# Entry
Amino acid sequence: CMDARLDPAKYAGLAEGDAHVIRNAGGRASDDAIRSLVISYKLLGTREFFVIHHTDCGMRFFTNDVIAGLLDQSLETAKLGENGFEDVGTGPGSSEGHYINFLTIPDPEAAVREDVARIANHPLVPATIPVRGFIYDVRSGRLELVVGAEANVG
# Structure
């Protein structure tokens, strides 16, 4: 995830240069994340992929419809209020947000399993690369393997 509070290398016990860390909103297996993973293994020799989501992720607190609606109203930064995100901008907005899947996370464990499966089953990812999915607990500092979130492990 791109959450600025978190340093994936630190909580995974990695030193600088140990891993290629690919970050995006929610840590999701988007087309661009998979593009980076393919480059990482094909050109740089990466031999294993980890999908790591975390507790208290902001991607749990809205849906595609919510963000598309906010973008309809204005392109200014929304504020989180008592009733969720609220647009405080004065416009103009854009309807283009309705054409994007923002890959929100209503169920963190299901999202990890989905992302592991998407990566492992991608036609450009060989079946010899293990893919494992974890959730990092921001309160306890523990990195937990998600049940059912492993592929290509021998």
The first helix runs from residue 8 to 11. Residues 1-60+104-154 form a domain with the Beta-carbonic Anhydrase; Chain A fold (CATH 3.40.1050.10). The helical segments are 8-11, 31-44, 64-73, 108-120. Strands lie at 49-54, 79-81, 84-86, 131-136, 143-151.
